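Retro notes - structure team

What went well: the batch runner handled both jobs without manual restarts.
What didn't: labels got mixed up in the shared folder, which is why I'm recording both outputs here explicitly, each with its sequence directly above its tokens.

Job 1
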Amino acid sequence: MNTKNVVRRHPERGSQDREAAYSVLDEALVCHVGFDDEGPTVIPMLHARVGDDLILHGSPASRLLKTLGGGAQVCITTTIIDGLVLADSAFDSSVNYRSVMVFGRAVAVDDLSERRASLEAFTDKALPGRRPHLRAMTDAEVRSTAVARIPIEEFSVKSRFGPSGSPATTGVWTGVIPTRLIALDPIPDGDTPIPDHVRHLLS
């Protein structure tokens, strides 16, 4: 096991459970991609998972995709905040969360059919049920989008659940405030009625 994967701070919160890692990667919308671009650089991006690969996409002109296309090593992280943990002191307060770090070397996706499938996976993840209502991507659109995949081989999961664990002694309210990402009412561009697959995103 790569020593980078070892959780040293609160090791009881760490895990090498692949299914737990995939659950976080599939639920989270945004990841942060760390790479060396003449110095440490971190860029937030949308991502998708296809099997045992993490997929990123963007403009072929972007410095990130150029770097990834060259087989760069990356560290990709994502976090879901599940709640604010309120203790009777700021020191003992915390958050409940689930996070994943993936370490790997990027591989450019050059095959157009594989690239198309990867791009479709993005739409299916971010907007479930949307793709059947859209026109198909043209070959020109597929060619003009760079895609990189990172095999999910080295990874680390870390999470925290539950209350603070510090007993309240001062009469201050303590507990957990659950949090989640929600979609608000859609803002239409025109007069087309809001379809069911969009309404479904609001539930």
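Job 2
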Amino acid sequence: MGARIRLRRVGRKKQASYRIVVAEQSAARDGAYIEAIGFYNPRRQPAELRLDLGRVDYWIGNGATPSETTKELILKARKGGDAKVKLYAGDEQPEKETSPTAVRARRSERTKPKLKEAAAAPAEVEGQIAHDADGQTPAEGDPVAEAHGETADPDAAREAAAEAKTESEAEA
């Protein structure tokens, strides 16, 4: 049996990426292989392709036949990529780093603004002015609003409540 250059599925469920491998034709899709010569990740935009063209030429020279998909990927790699597939060199990293520390850093950057908003919310509630039943702010000097203990100044409302408490204690 001859060798074949084909894709070997790796990755989690519903998050497939592929190794480009040289395997015996009789081997299972995800089974044993002779050599891994590249990597293909179609989930990125544009898709990520890493391929050792020197090893591809070596295996084709020794009688290995590429599958239809790998034949297309090899052609794109020889052209240097296209709009849908970006070719990366062996040591070159894609723009977005996927190490666990980099992922944690990106996640914390996304949650920091939410945490700041949540911390600021109680302070904003304390500083709000009292509103009457119609949603209107009571005007200063309004005798009806002052009779009910509502004022435009929250500090003045606290002082009025404290005075009322001391008056009731003095009468008792």
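One thing worth noting from job 2: The mean pLDDT is 78.
We'll revisit the folder naming next retro.
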